[in-house]
Amino acid sequence: MNYLDALRSVNNLDGTFVELGFGKGNSLKEFISFMNGGDIDKREIYIYESFNGYRKPTVEDKEAFVERGFKRPIQPAYDIVHTINKKVHLVKGYIEDTFSTQPPSRVAIVHSHLVGYSSTQFALKQLASKLLDNGIVIITDYEKYPGTKQAVDEFIYDRPKQWKFSKGNGFITIKKIKIEEVSTKVSRTRSSLV
């Protein structure tokens, strides 16, 4: 599976696109080109990015990155607003500090570049209730960053019937599964001896 296949899988859902960790904006530019090209539905976009580099790593991150590493300028994020005819919300700051101030509602797609355990864990828990049934979370760097992998694995382990895990080409997806309520009624029949 490639990115386009993953994104097309939710074309029937009417929800927003959430970008967690903008970086240089290359992934989001690619996704917007799919939207503008008609390959996938155009969506309102939320971008969450600190523009101050990574938070302090936790023990789970196993020193895979350094605090304040990968600091990027904000201007490319401002510029991306002009590349699509949909509303783009830019939320500056760490997800743990900013999510409650501008939370998206009905989410169809989450694309996560978060590399830290605590940020990934926080984002998954917060967005789980916002993600529509059959919505997807695309996570890059799952294999590269141990904290990201551990946060995703713990999240799925705690909710095995609610999420379907799939590997793509350089990323993973987790899909929110609609859980059908199972009827608790039991039908009873009488048996008679002849």
Share in β-strands: 15-25%
Total E-strand runs? 7
Main pleated sheet: 7 strands, mixed
The shape, in one word, is: globular
SSE pattern: HEHEHEHEHEHEE
Unreliable spans: 181-194
Strand order of the largest sheet: 3-2-1-4-5-7-6
Q: How many angstroms separate the termini?
A: 60 Å
Helix content: 25-40%
**What's the rounded overall pLDDT mean?**
92
Q: Indicate the structural class.
A: alpha/beta
Give the number of helices.
Answer: 6
Rg over C-alpha atoms, rounded to the nearest angstrom: 19 Å
Structure characterization notes:
The chain is of the alpha/beta class. Helix content is 27%, strand content 22%. It has helices at 3-8, 26-36, 75-80, 95-98, 117-128, 146-158; strands at 16-20, 45-49, 88-92, 107-112, 131-140, 163-167, 171-176. The chain has a 7-stranded mixed sheet with strand order 3-2-1-4-5-7-6. Helix 5 runs parallel beside helix 6 (146-158). It starts with a helix and ends in an 18-residue tail after the last strand. The model is unreliable at 181-194 (pLDDT under 50).
Q: Summed up, what is this model?
A:
This protein has helices at 3-8, 26-36, 75-80, 95-98, 117-128, 146-158, and strands at 16-20, 45-49, 88-92, 107-112, 131-140, 163-167, 171-176. The chain has 194 residues and is of the alpha/beta class.
